[in-house]
Amino acid sequence: MDTPSSCIPLIVLDVQDAIDQPVWDGKNNPGYVSAIQSLLVHWRHNDWPVLHIKHDEPTPTSTYHTRGPWNAIKEDVAPEDGETVIIKQQNCAFIGTNLDAVLRSMGASCFVLSGVVIHNSMDATIRAGKAFGYDIVLPADATTAVPVTAKNGKRWDAATVYELTLAILDDEYADVTTSDEVIARYSKDRP
Q: Which of 24, 73, 106, 168 is deepest in the core (most CB within 10 A)?
């Protein structure tokens, strides 16, 4: 991960108004948006690349439905002029999109991933990104989880889902860290 910071894009995944609808209630880590905002401020201040992944779900009952009322990227993390927005329709940001081509055109071998939710689109994107050969930095405070209920009715609370998913991903698939550590690591003032 010694790539220059200017070649390390920050990706903000699926942070849309949809995530605040009742079907997604019970999220842990309520400060995840603030952590993403801190990362965005740092990346924008340094003129580093920011990519936004927007989920356009074809299923009409989804809160992320393409023409649904909650499809917009949350205003708190909305793209600024010149920032790339990539549209996806699958849980993985690499499937059916040009994300890999965009990253390769930047010369990126690594990216910082933030967004929602850790055990769904984040997990799928991390695993695919690793399979494509990318090093992935995952600031744990810049993501969240929701409770999961199995078909047999067994339920896991969001904190358990979050902690277990991060533990599974750490080291083998991603470098799990914090937003503060990412900002310190990728600083122009760093010796």
A: 73
Whole-prediction pTM value? 0.94
User: Is the four-CA dihedral 125, 66, 30, 25 of positive or negative sign?
Assistant: negative
Number of Cβ within a 10 Å radius of residue 124? 17
Structure tokens that stand for 155 in this block = 């339920």
* Class of residue 76 by CB neighbours under 10 A (exposed 0-12, middle 13-18, buried 19+): exposed
Strands 148-149 and 155-156, sheet pairing: antiparallel
- The domain 5-185 belongs to what CATH superfamily? Isochorismatase-like (3.40.50.850)
In this predicted structure, what is the pLDDT of residue 187? 85
- Residue ranges per domain, the chain? 5-185
Instruction: Tell which residue, 45, 62, 44, 64, has the closest CA to residue 53.
Output: 64
Best CA proximity match to 94, nearest among 131, 44, 50 = 131
For 60-103, what is each residue's pLDDT tens digit?
Answer: 999 999 999 999 999 999 999 999 999 999 999 999 999 999 99
| 56, 90 contact by CB (below 8 A) | no
Q: Is 70:16 a contact under the CB 8 Å cutoff?
A: yes
Q: In the chain, which residues have pLDDT < 50?
A: 1-4, 190-191
DSSP 30: T
